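ok so for the tutorial part 2 we go from a plain amino acid sequence to predicted structure tokens. step 1 is just haveing the sequence, like this:
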Amino acid sequence: MDELKDFIRHRREKAAELRSAGINPYANSFRAEHSAAQIAERFAGSTREQIEACTDVFSLAGRVVSLRSFGKAAFVHLQDRSGRLQAYIQKNEIGEESFAVFKKVDIGDFIGVRGRAFLTKSDELTVLASQVCLLTKSLRPLPEKWHGLQDVETRYRQRYLDLIANENVRRTFHARSRIITLIRRFLEEHGFQEVETPMMHPIPGGATAQPFKTHHNALDMDLYMRIAPELYLKRLLVGGLERVFEINRNFRNEGISTQHNPEFTMVEFYQAYATHEDLMGLTETMISGICAEVCGSTTVDYQGTAIDFAAPWQRLSMKEAAARFGNFDPADLENPEKLRSHAAAVGLPLCGRETPGELIAAIFEHVAEPYLVQPTFITHFPVEVSPLARRSEHDPSVTDRFELYIAGREIANAFSELNDPLDQRERFEAQAAAKDRIEGVTGAIDEDFLLALEYGMPPAAGEGIGIDRLVMLLTDAASIRDVILFPLMR
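step 2 — the prediction. this is what the tokens look like for a chain of 490 residues:
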């Protein structure tokens, strides 16, 4: 601790000395016209003679991440948004006054450098500085001084240090940005219109999850942070916007784990005159294409397991998956007594009021979900656990719904939409009654959405994809906190 205090005191003294000399240690007068990667690309494949014959002058700025001083000269590595590049600073090149200022530059400071390129004796591309400008004086040591940043709590709480110290973390968030861009581009190319819907709702809806509650003072009314944008997006289908999507933040007042953060990102999209079968094909094409573009292949390694994203993907009904992974006769799922017996045998807590559909879903989650490693569409969800999905015309006990599972976790949820307002009201009422049975939870019915359905919603299908979990898969991240810049911490 004393060493850190001495470090900070010494840096502050340097900043004060610069100010006394009329030098602003936090200047903003330098303009970087090139990045480290652009300069490296400019000379890729060039010979020493070609580089030294080039008269172009480059200007770049970045953080000093290494510094080797030799009295009247020094080598520094600058890190900018694109990578690192070396600069060579000589007293006789930049002048005595500028060099005196440079002598007060430390690792962690930001500087701007302007000059021509050359190759050092060790063949490293370097900028020979003709001008150096101090842009920001750093007052604290970078993580490298303490042998890198390894502590997980510090990495998440002080993500800025994590980004400075760990190149693989920067790559992860570059990939995240790229994935979202590709999702947006894919949907736009398929005729979808991006929209924005409210994040504060008068009643919670769109998913079965515990909401965050807030209060609007001027209107003196309680509001709920968005669980999902589903009901608002479907209102747009009623209004004639036939293909819509929203890349949205959702909030669920539930547990935190390696797969769950209370605030998370999803893309939801809805297509009129389409079914869940259409969306399965769309999803395969979109995700396998994104995987190929981001990872360079449709096969990726996730936590030591090779996952093949190439289409087509496996498809199983929920009953088929439950029976296969639970090692029991599929016919047992049609017998209420045997169904309850199997649920008890696998250790599920039972209250005695569970419907057959709820038991099937619970058994599936327990015995099958963890083993769905390769991309798999699970279809035919029971009506009781699918309050917004359309009933199957072939079997009214199940819905035209699928969930996509990869690496043992849900990645997407989709279904042919329920557009019968009478059926929807019955489902809402059943869902509200089920919530009322939970202590501290009150069920609510979205009457305005039901009103919208009475005006007529075209047949449609909709889907939500968890962007955080998709990024985890494509960047080999073990925890959702590794792909969220500022995850919630206790």
